[in-house]
Amino acid sequence: MTNTVRLTMAQALTRYLTRQMTVIDGRMVPLFGGVWAIFGHGNVAGIGEALYQVREELPTYRAHNEQAMAHAAIAYAKTNFRQRMMAATSSIGPGAVNMVTAAALAHVNRLPVLLLPGDVFANRVPDPVLQQVEDFGDGTVSVNDCFRPVSRYFDRIMRPEQIIPALARAMQVLTDPAECGPVTLSLCQDVQAEAYDYPESFFAERVWTPRRPRPDRDELATAAEVLKSAKKPLIVAGGGVLYSGASAELDRFVEATGIPVCETQGGKSALTDEHGLNMAAVGVTGTAAANRLAEEADVVLAVGTRLQDFTTGSWSLFKNSGKTIIGLNVQPFDAGKHRALPLVADAREGLVELGAAVAGYKAPASWTENAKAGKVEWRKAAAKVTAATNVALPSDAQVIGAVQRTLGSEVIVLHAAGGLPGEMHKLWQAGSPGSYHSEYGFSCMGYEIAGGLGAKMARPDREVVIMIGDGSYLMLNSEIATSVMLGLKLTIVLLDNRGYGCINRLQMATGGANFNNLLRDSRHEVLPDIDFVAHAKSLGANAEKASSIADFEAALGRARKSDRTTVVLIDTDPLISTGEGGHWWDVAVPEVSVRAEVNAARMGYEEKLKLQRVGD
């Protein structure tokens, strides 16, 4: 006879989560680092009560915004290289829908997060309840159906026993390196409180470790043959290198073959910036050293990357018509992109076996030395644009240089949207794997502070530095208060260019008038004069404004010594971006316009379109 224990569905769910484990560096630790929760009707009575019972084993953290708490959970998983994760629970209605943006972010970035939104009554007796959306033609619809397209797995729990197969499937998705992404279990509020006799075996401890598929022999042989014939090979390292823990294997592969490496936003820090064959950033936000090699490469080994448009220059960067791409990726969908030769495997295992298969191969010395020389020249260019000056409004690049000089390369630096990702990708010099944290898959404004909080929870021993513009700061800053409440110190570098400077520059580049991006160009009666220092202090943080780069560096030094979250503000120029490096990006320009500037931009746009590799 099967032994059972009578629990509510919510109690069974939380108990199950406490039993999921993983092994990191030989030490067994809980797979879930905790649960973020904002309670309301729909989750306070059910899962709220259940979380209270396991609060010591599975900590519950209170946030101020549902989107932000899910961002923090996602950043926690990213900083842990997907080896650990968190859950987030909300009330029904707006609380649930607030997490949809975060679900999309996790989906795009292939990051695990367990979302547990409250839902309407399964029995439908009290319908329509407060905050319930009614579909006139479908009685099964709730707002939580919004999660379906942005979840790797979605389930609505309408009977208490359904949580058993639902959690089994959820864990398979959350821990699978190929399928990894957000899981949404939509929890009907009456069912959360319903009891069921659950088998005790359901709560047996389970250890989840990363699956490491090895390459198919035929795919490996084909890839090796192509790579050994390469005269101008190039490696593109993506986030999969970091998630696989393959940095050391990549280093060995590069040292053995002499093949230069460039990095995507997600893959930056896979090798240290000091590595002589690390050309750093590639693509639209890339370095001159990387992009000139990409234009000539005859074989491109793409490791753990989605090959999105910023990496490929909207598919106009890799100009060699005879090139071959080898897609080393754990996900077949990514491995075959752009007619690549697929090499479906874990990045670490794939590099090990590919290295053995091409043993003795060396890239031509002229190609390798050319790459190294380009790296030296790029470092000179980068040093020039990041150098300190006494200008009234410094550039983003000069602020980045000041942060690098003052805080060093071993901090975890985090950013997400606006002009900073382009400048950071080119100019930041990462010192160790994972020290560069970029959310540029979804490029979600508002991720930064919440993401920094999640990163700090994952690495409490590291300094976490958040680079953020005034636009993103104003969108979502509430978790400053959460960081203070939890005693998790962050350093927030706030660059105030008084608007959306990045998109203003893009608007100008496509012939548009300065319109609705900078505050001065938006409809207004009075221009805002926001006291960011006072605002940050009101949330419990330390804060100060710097009047120059020298003043800014001194303020950063004080922030480093502080044990409390500190915001350091500096005004910046909204019109300056680094001209060195970079590549064209496809942003459609209107075919006709009354503005001569737009028509001129369209002519240039049509010329660039001719460079795209249509069908590749």
TrEMBL record:
EC number in record: 3.7.1.22
Pfam families: TPP_enzyme_C, TPP_enzyme_M, TPP_enzyme_N
Residue ranges annotated for the Thiamine pyrophosphate enzyme N-terminal TPP-binding domain, each copy included: 50-131
UniProt entry tagged with the keyword Chaperone: no
PROSITE patterns: TPP_ENZYMES
GO biological process: inositol catabolic process; isoleucine biosynthetic process; L-valine biosynthetic process
Gene Ontology cellular-component terms listed: acetolactate synthase complex
Single GO term (MF): flavin adenine dinucleotide binding
Domain Thiamine pyrophosphate enzyme central, first and last residues per copy: 221-354
Keywords, in A-Z order: Hydrolase, Thiamine pyrophosphate
Residue ranges constituting the Thiamine pyrophosphate enzyme TPP-binding domain according to the UniProt record: 418-568
SUPFAM superfamilies documented for this protein: DHS-like NAD/FAD-binding domain, Thiamin diphosphate-binding fold (THDP-binding)
Family, per entry: Belongs to the TPP enzyme family.
NCBIfam families hit by this protein: myo_inos_iolD (TIGR04377)
Protein name, as recorded: 3D-(3,5/4)-trihydroxycyclohexane-1,2-dione acylhydrolase (Decyclizing)
Lineage, highest ranks first: Bacteria, Pseudomonadati, Pseudomonadota, Alphaproteobacteria, Hyphomicrobiales
